[in-house]
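# nightly structure sweep
# worker-07 picked up a monomer target from the shared queue
# config: single-sequence mode, recycle default, output format = structure tokens
# input follows
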Amino acid sequence: MGAGSHPDSNRTETDKDPAIADQRNGYSVVAFTSVPVAKRPNILFCISDDQSYAHTGANGEPQVKTPAFDRIAREGIRFTAAFCDAPTCGPSRSAILTGQHIWRLEEAANIHSTLPAKFTTYTELLQDAGYAVGFTGKGWSPGRLEPGGRTVNPAGTEFNSRKLKPSFKGMTNKDYAANFDDFLAQVSQDQPFCFWLGTHEPHRGFDKGAGQRTGKDPAKVIVPPIFPDHPVVRNDLLDYFVEIEHFDKMVARAIQTLEKSGQLDNTIVVVTSDHGMP
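# output follows
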């Protein structure tokens, strides 16, 4: 992965600042690759659920291990002045998919609502341009699509059949990375793709005590100033970190798949969250 290089340029940008603060503590990192102009890049869009900006290794939290995120942050571009558009899942995801502020999206500005079909999504544009588009896990959600005139999730065609045994309570049994493999298996060799890898983690609720059971030290947690510095808070953060690490492992596996298949150098990898922790 090149660090911030454009497809039509050999120039790179390095030594970027640590990643993107948003108004609700979300975060985002993107890795661009150097590819010929004539070859359309693939896109792997990885989005966690309710993860704050500060809670990655690259951003200075000593108790969470995120080697995949840290690699992309190191080799790619980290955004330090970006903002999520809403502090709730559905509206924020609507803004991401459409590139519009939520105040322009009518019903989609409310959680548990809909995303009207008249608002075009980037996935629709890519599909019209010949891309294979799919998703696993949590795409656009929560809400109901039918009242807005949609019949399929705007994140793409669903790939959720592969399962695993969750390591901790509160995690889903979806094998996001294996579902990405299934998606790639049905993409033709000469077709570019856009895949949304959306984990349900680290959305609450967590497996109480999971953090300490994995060797994390509550005394070393950096407690956000909005919270009281209390043992309950420190341990809750540790349990939340365990789910962040699950997300990161899925990102790592997806990247490994791209490396093994020789597609990583022609893939834009984006890592972000819909908004910050609850």
